[in-house]
Write a structure and sequence with these properties.
By secondary structure, this protein is mainly β. It is built from two helices and 22 strands.
């Protein structure tokens, strides 16, 4: 088990040394308050004053420069990047280079249950010269607002963000050309920002698969949707298809505009607010890590098909002191196969820890608590 070493510089950059590489996180600072800007302010015709967006997942795609590559409904540059400032939580922007790299680890189309014909080759971001290409980023985030009563915050739905960058290395101060929309079927018990990943091409289009969750707290189920990357980026949500129940024998099918509680088919794993979705060639299976509520063990759910056949195995035991469930809660497990020194034998897992008592956050020695824990874990074929 290797724990990452974190070095904070005097600038707005923190560099984390992982087992075999360096990952650099950038964030913007609000010049008016000198506080980190850790969320997106909604921009678009459906923006609600007072809401903000906490990014959960994102994918980046290198695209040859064409008029179609521009952000839909893009706004002119502004003096600030539109990111909001808030004390306390700090979330780094999506590491788009890693997100793009993860797209290379996708299977052939035979692993997916689909009613569409699919190309036998995996989906990959197209190659292009850096001088003639831009990076298009699509992100899903929690829509956060004020609760009806009391303090704190309330998650009111899922928001979508489209952003065009000149380079995946563009610092957040250049993230001015973005716009947002509400993602459909994402209010109440529905969440669609749990995980997102490229899949094999369908009808010549680069498909993206979205893992959502539905249900009451502590009784949520994982559900699935898909759409072409270009449609998601353009906010053409009519192209989103949902995996819904079909037939009397527990089957399913892809249907557009069917994201209703009675129609969505649970794919197997429990629902969780934050996870990741990857295809692991070493296992020949799709994989999602999950930490059940208030648990101290990380589960690895895997399947040869995204839509069914998921099984659970043990992945990692959370160590002391973070396994003290009277004080701490662990959540948001994610895999990072592209960071593993040997992806045939190991993968990299991150998870976050928070305190069940805000007073603990300010105690001596707790500065390392509210940052992702980075560990190398073995992959075992079961």
């Amino acid at each position: 088990t290797t724990t990452a070493t974190t070095t904070t510089t005097t600038t707005t950059t923190t560099t984390t040394t992982a087992p075999n590489c360096t990952v650099t996180f950038h964030w913007q600072v609000d010049p008016a308050t000198n506080h980190p800007t850790d969320f997106f302010v909604p921009r678009g015709p459906d923006a609600v004053p007072g809401e903000y967006l906490w990014v959960d997942v994102g994918l980046a795609r290198l695209t040859p420069t064409t008029p179609a590559a521009a952000v839909p409904g893009s706004l002119p540059s502004v003096s600030r990047n539109g990111l909001g400032s808030r004390k306390g939580k700090r979330k780094a922007p999506i590491p788009t280079a890693a997100a793009s790299a993860s797209a290379r680890q996708t299977p052939s189309s035979s692993t997916l249950s689909s009613t569409r014909s699919s190309s036998p080759s995996p989906s990959r971001p197209p190659s292009a010269s850096p001088s003639t290409a831009v990076t298009r980023v699509f992100m899903l985030a929690q829509r956060v607002g004020k609760p009806a009563a009391g303090g704190g915050f309330a998650v009111v739905g899922t928001g979508a963000i489209s952003l065009t960058l000149g380079s995946v290395d563009d610092a957040p101060r250049r993230w001015t050309n973005y716009t947002t929309r509400h993602f459909p079927f994402a209010a109440g018990e529905y969440r669609w920002s749990c995980a997102m990943q490229f899949g094999p091409e369908g009808d010549g289009r680069t498909m993206v698969y979205l893992v959502g969750s539905v249900g009451k707290p502590f009784d949520r189920k994982a559900v699935l949707a898909r759409a072409p990357f270009d449609s998601l980026f353009a906010f053409d949500f009519d192209q989103v298809e949902y995996w819904v129940a079909h037939g009397v024998f527990g089957g399913g099918r892809w249907t557009a505009g069917a994201g209703t509680a009675s129609g969505l088919r649970h794919i197997g794993p429990p629902g969780t607010p934050q996870t990741s979705l990857h295809y692991l060639p070493a296992l020949g299976r799709w994989a999602m890590p999950i930490i059940p509520p208030f648990a101290t063990k990380v589960q690895l759910w895997t399947s040869a098909s995204l839509t069914s056949g998921w099984t659970c195995s043990h992945l990692y035991d959370i160590p002391s002191p973070w396994n003290n469930t009277t004080k701490f809660v662990n959540y948001a497990p994610r895999l990072h196969p592209s960071l593993a020194p040997d992806s045939n034998a190991t993968t990299v897992l991150t998870y976050n820890t928070n305190s069940q008592d805000f007073a603990t956050l300010w105690q001596h020695g707790m500065a390392a608590m509210y940052v992702p824990k980075t560990v190398s874990v073995p992959l075992t074929r079961t």
